[in-house]
């Protein structure tokens, strides 16, 4: 399976329409890949909290339609990163009407999976103040037959999420992010930790550039199930193109069957 990660750099000067057009062009250049991945909240700005409400869209809005068209054009599965979603007529348990929602399109351009970010970053500000939390796991079948689970950025700090995903059959994790430079070493370490402890492939696409006065960390990466770096980007805009070996995860799990020794994967009875 051939994977492209588009580590997009942006600042505060572009409109949503301008950035969407630029991103569509970058995706179009990845024809020949099986899976293309974009970063978290790239249309609206990962840290541009004040603009989220104004820039929010539905999952069939202008950004989604542009991504659908280009996915079909290049014949690839496209993880479109995430958008600030405002569904029509829906509010969540906390009374908010915004979610941080990932969009995945198949090679025919159909929206096949969405994932609403479960763990909201901001410590009572930012996402927790403005957005609802997602509640559901989301998994997709990749072109090589593997099963990939979706998560987003801050989710990476919560290993129990990834254990729940492998219990649903996940062999890979696809993680778009807007992870800042201030904690980029946490990002790099946690990607390897999730890969090693779950014996899974990690495909993680971060953001570059500076927006809303926040410098982004870059260092998008593809990590093998033994923690090996198959590829890692630098700090600026970059496209990683990676060929994933067949049976990479299956061979790792068969050769060193750690997961079979889990003892705490079920609720205790009383």
Distance between the termini: 46 Å
- General shape: globular
Computed CA radius of gyration, to the nearest angstrom: 18 Å
Using the coordinates above, name the CATH class: Alpha Beta
Q: Tell how many strands the DSSP assignment holds.
A: 14
Following the backbone from N to C, one meets helices and strands in this order, namely: EHEHHEEEHEEHEHEEEEEEH
Give the rounded overall mean pLDDT.
96
Count of DSSP-assigned helices: 7
Percent helix range: 25-40%
Placed side by side, the strands forming the largest sheet appear as 5-4-3-2-1-14
CATH architecture name: 4-Layer Sandwich
Q: Assign the CATH topology.
A: Nitrilase/N-carbamoyl-D-aminoacid amidohydrolase
Low-confidence stretches: none
Quaternary: single chain
Strand composition percent = 15-25%
Classify the secondary structure makeup into a structural class: alpha/beta
Largest sheet: 6 strands, mixed
Number of domains: 1
Instruction: Tell me the CATH superfamily.
Output: Carbon-nitrogen hydrolase
List keywords for this structure.
alpha/beta, six-stranded mixed beta sheet, acyltransferase activity, UPF0012_CS, Apolipoprotein acyltransferase, Nitrilase/N-carbamoyl-D-aminoacid amidohydrolase, 7 helices
Explain how this protein is built:
The protein is an alpha/beta fold. The protein has a single domain, classed as Nitrilase/N-carbamoyl-D-aminoacid amidohydrolase, CATH 3.60.110.10. Helices cover 26% and strands 24% of the residues. Strands 5-4-3-2-1-14 form a six-stranded mixed sheet. A six-stranded mixed sheet has the order 6-7-8-9-12-13, with helices on one face. Helix 6 links the parallel strand 8 and strand 9. Helix 1 packs parallel to helix 3. It is globular. 43% of the residues are buried. The model has no long low-confidence stretch (mean pLDDT 96). It comes from Luteipulveratus mongoliensis. Keywords: Acyltransferase, Lipoprotein, Transferase. Pfam families: CN_hydrolase. One of its GO terms (molecular function) is acyltransferase activity. Belongs to the carbon-nitrogen hydrolase superfamily. NIT1/NIT2 family.
């Amino acid at each position: 399976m051939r994977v492209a990660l588009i580590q997009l750099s942006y600042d505060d000067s572009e409109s949503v329409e301008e950035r969407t057009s630029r991103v569509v062009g970058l995706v179009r250049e990845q024809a020949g890949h099986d899976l293309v991945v974009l970063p978290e909240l790239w249309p609206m700005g990962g840290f541009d909290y004040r603009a989220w409400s104004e820039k929010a869209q539905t999952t069939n809005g202008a950004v989604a339609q542009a991504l659908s068209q280009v996915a079909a054009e290049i014949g690839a599965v496209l993880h479109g990163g995430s958008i600030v979603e405002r569904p029509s007529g829906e509010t969540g348990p906390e009374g908010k009407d915004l979610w941080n929602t990932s969009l995945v399109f198949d090679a025919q351009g159909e929206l096949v999976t969405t994932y609403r970010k479960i763990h909201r970053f901001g410590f009572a500000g930012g996402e927790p103040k403005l957005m609802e939390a997602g509640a559901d796991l989301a998994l997709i079948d990749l072109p090589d037959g593997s099963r990939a689970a979706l998560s987003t950025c801050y989710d990476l700090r919560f290993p129990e999420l990834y254990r729940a995903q492998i219990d649903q059959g996940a062999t890979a994790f696809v993680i778009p992010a807007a992870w800042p430079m201030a904690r980029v070493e946490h990002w790099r370490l946690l990607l390897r930790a999730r890969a090693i402890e779950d014996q899974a492939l990690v495909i993680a696409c971060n953001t570059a550039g500076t927006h809303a006065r926040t410098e982004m960390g870059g260092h998008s990466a593809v990590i093998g199930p033994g923690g090996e770096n198959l590829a890692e980007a630098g700090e600026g805009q970059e496209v990683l193109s990676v060929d994933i070996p067949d049976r990479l995860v299956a061979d790792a799990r068969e050769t060193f069957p750690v997961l079979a020794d889990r003892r705490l994967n079920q609720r205790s009875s009383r």
